[in-house]
Amino acid sequence: MQSTLGEILKRVKERNYHDETVFFQAVEEVIRSIKPLLDNDPRYEQNGILDRLLTPDRIVTFKVVWLDDHNKVQVNKGYRVQFNNALGPYKGGLRFHPTVNVGVLKFLAFEQIFKNSLTGLIIGGAKGGSDFDPKGKSDFEVMKFCAAFMTELHKYIGPRVDVPAGDIGVGAREIGYLFGEYKKITSSYEGVLTGKPFMFGGSLMRPEATGYGVVYFVQALLEMEHKESLEGKICTVSGAGNVAIHTIEKLQHIGAIPVSCSDSQGTLYDSRGIDLALLKEIKLTKRGALTDYLKTHANAQFIPTRDYPEGGHAVWSIPCYAAFPCATQNELSLVDAKMLVKNKTVLVAEGANMPSTTEAVLFLQKHGVSFAPAKAANAGGVAVSEFEMSQNASLQRWSFEKVDAKLKETMTQLCKRVVLTAKDYGVEGNYVDGANIAGFKRVADAMIAEGF
Ligand code: NDP
Ligand code: 2IT
User: Fold this and answer.
1) Which pTM value belongs to this model?
2) Nearest ligand 2 atom to alpha carbon 167
3) Domain for residue 49, yes or no?
4) In this predicted model, what pLDDT tens digit does every residue of 332-345 receive, in sequence order?
C-alpha cells in the first residue's frame, strides 16, 4: 500500500530528529566535576583542552539499505562517533535501537572516553549504532541488516583504528554477522570487533564482563569505604539484557539476593530471589517476554510500566540495600531517588550508561547514598574487550580464570583510583567527581603531550 504524504513526512522528521539533551547532560556533569582542576592548572586552558575534548574527532553518518523477509526495501541510518583517540584506538559499542540518533551516540562516546581512560588501558572513546530495531526481526533479517551496515562501517574501522563492540540490541549474534561481513569485504582475519563468539576469537567472559565488573567494583567500594559486604543483602536490578543478567548472576555467586529485573514492558519482582536459569531461558534463549516468568513462579509479581505512576519506575520502589540500574539512560528519576532514600538504600551502582538523571544523582549524594557512576562501575565490559584485542593481536586464548582475575584486579584498582582521587581533591565520598577528575586527567595530559 502507498504511504500517505503525512506518513512520508512523519518518517522524514523521525529520521532527521536531532536532540543533544543527553550529550549536554553528560558534558555538564563532567565540567562540574573538573572545574576546580581547570581553575588551578593553567595548562588546560593554554592548550585549549576543553574545547578540543568537547568536539568529536569525527562523526560518520551513513545510509543502510537492506531487504526484509517480505522482499521489501528497508532503510535505516548508521553512525559512528569517533570522539577521542588520545589514549589509543577508538573503542566503544554499537547500539541498535529505534531511539538511536547523533545526540544519544555523542553522549555515549563522550562518556566512553573517560570510562576507557579510567581502566588505565590503551583505548580511546567512540560509539556507534543505528535506529534499526532487532526486536521481532528474523535471524536472516538481522544478518542482512548487519551485512549492509558493515558495507559502510568497514571503511572507518580497523584493529588499530577503531574497534566496535556490543551495546543495547547488539550481542554475540549481531557481532558475529558484522564480523563475517568485515572478513568477506577485506579477506582479512583481524580483531576489528570485540564481543565475538568464542569459536572465532571472542574472549572468554566478555558476555559476563560488564555485570561481573559492576559487582566487583561494588565489592571493592563497600570494603574500602564501609567495611561491608553484599552477602545476604537484598539488591534490586533493572533491565533484563546482557548487563542486568550478569549483574544478577555475580550477585548470586557472592550470596546477595537480587529480587528484580525489568524491561521496556515492566518490572518483575520475585521476593525469594530471581530464578536466573529461567530468566536466561526467557530472555537469552527465547528472546521472550518477562511475563513468561509468572508461568513458573506464580508468586512473583509483574508490574507493567503503564500501571506505574508518572515520573517513577516500579523497580526503585522495592526496598533494597543496593540498587543496580542496568537498562538505559535516565531510567532512575528524582522521584525514584526519593523512594530509594526513604527505603534506606545504602548504595546505587550504575550498570547502564547514565541511568540516573542529574537531579537523582545530586539527591542521592546529598542524602548519603554511596553513588557509583557508570563510567567507573560498568568499565569491566570494555576492559575485557581490550583483553580480547590483546588476545587477538597475539593469537592467544586466555582461560576463564585468567580473564576473571584480570577483570577483578582492574575493577579493584579502578575503584581505588576513584576513591583516592576524590579524597585528593577534597571531595571525599563523591565518586562522580573522583571518576571524572581521574578520567579527565589521563586524557587531557595525553592530549597535551601529543600536541594538537
Ligand atoms: P541489552 O540490549 O542486552 O538489554 C537492554 C535491556 O534494557 C533490555 O532489558 C531492554 O528491554 C531494556 N531497555 C532498553 N531500552 C529501554 C528503554 N528505553 N526503556 C526501558 N527498558 C529499556 O543491552 P545491555 O544489557 O548490553 O545494555 C544495558 C545498558 O548497559 C545500556 O545502557 C548500555 O549502554 C550499558 N552498557 C553495556 C555494556 C555491554 O557490555 N553490553 C557495557 C557497559 C554499559 P527491552 O528488551 O524490552 O527493550
Ligand atoms: O558502554 C560500554 O562500555 C560498552 N557498550 C562496551 C564497549 C566495548 O567496547 O566493549
Assistant:
1) 0.97
2) 5
3) no
4) 999 999 999 999 99
